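Section 3.1: Structural characterization of target chains.
Under the original work plan, the team committed to producing a structural model for every single-chain target entering the pipeline before any wet-lab resources were allocated. The record below documents one such target. The sequence was received from the expression subgroup and is listed exactly as submitted; it comprises 129 residues.
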Amino acid sequence: MCDYKLLMDNAKQASKMSYSPFSRFAVGACVLAKSGKLYTGCNVENSSFGMTICAERCAIFKAVSEGERTITAVAIYSPNADDCNPCGACRQVMYEFQDDDDDIEIITENMGELVVRKLSEYLPYGFKI
């Protein structure tokens, strides 16, 4: 079991680094890799909107670029909304880097309370090649 509060605290800190001049919707994420290391990320927008990256993918790609291949948990936070959930693209990226025998835990915060759900609840039919 991971320390959900620690992950959420890191996601909150990461949200402060958000570059979101267009949506004004800051998001931070903290990823727990199977190795036990934590990686954070924030959303980074671009005037060419398709070039924007979500906080979750930012954190996961940082982990992967450091040699991680398995993610066990992801905390997501936005000061702009309660229960900030991952988009479809982020869900599929999470699926790519989850352990085949274990389901990633996704932690959000709703009205000050931590909410923990499994990736399979968000993406029941993800795919890998």
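The mean pLDDT is 96.
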